[in-house]
Amino acid sequence: MNQEIEKVECLIIGSGPAGFTAAIYAARADMKPVMYEGLQPGGQLTITTDVENYPGYPDGIEGPMMMDHFKKQAVRLGADIRFGIVTSVDFSQRPFTCVVDEKKTIVAESIIIATGASAKWLGIPSEQKLNGSGVSACAVCDGFFYRGQDVAIVGAGDTACEEASYLAKLCNKVHMIVRRDTFRASKAMQHRVENTPNIEIHFNSETDEILGDTVVEGARLKSTLDGSLKTISVTGFFVAIGHTPNTSIFKPWIHMDEQGYIMTKPGSSYTNIEGVFACGDAQDKIYRQAVTAAGSGCMAALDAERWLSSQHSA
User: Fold this and answer.
1) pLDDT at position 1
2) Over the chain, what is the mean pLDDT?
3) Is residue 141 annotated as a catalytic residue, yes or no?
4) Considering the entire predicted model, what is its pTM?
5) Residues 178, 285: one domain?
6) Is residue 5's pLDDT more than 80?
7) Angle at the Cα of 37 from the Cα atoms of 35 and 38, rounded to 5 degrees
């Protein structure tokens, strides 16, 4: 059976703020970008209720609606946005070869990777049931909504400590749930948390259940030492046990760090392979905000445009 092959100038893999911004800039530059949205069209913001920290929305906006605005703008400017998942790539030579949904082959002059990252979850049913109704994986995004309230955060690394410190400035009390008897975070971050009076640390504890029917009302903690249970009353529950970048299909070709985040050349979106660019949470493990992702999507499209121009004039 003959496999369908399509040639494109610029292929954007993944959506979200980075991918859609790249599509907007690439379309305006007449690069005729084709985007495949991936497994979660719109990215992590589609599971975020209210976004209040993105400039230009003075009254805030729901995450899915904001991503719909991004998508409509990209389409209006000429981006070809399609539902589908890039299942394999071959970056060994240019033009690059990508397979979509294991059946359609795309041959692309340039690639922009915007596959994002996925938050790691605890894996308990109540966590998914109450996701967006008090359960969040981003304290910086959602902490504002719990000003003056009691919240809980799970995690033991630097990110968890940073987010606990952030929440402590907003919230009445922060319960920090740590599975072992010590932190994995740096000593400086540990000291900051331990010296913050409204953070209560629950060592040797894991989450047995998040309580509440339609919104978070509390959490039941289980001792990892003796299995005993205790309940804390909270209205917000934050999971800070890390993120997994959605980059596994690129590993044979693209340089990454030990966590799988794509390494880009400083001050740019260039990867180790000429013609392949990366943006958003697939390469950013520090900021992970919609606005920084959008900015890096702009960078990737501009870098790709300049690189393509240099190839055409060579």
Assistant:
1) 42
2) 94
3) yes
4) 0.83
5) no
6) yes
7) 130
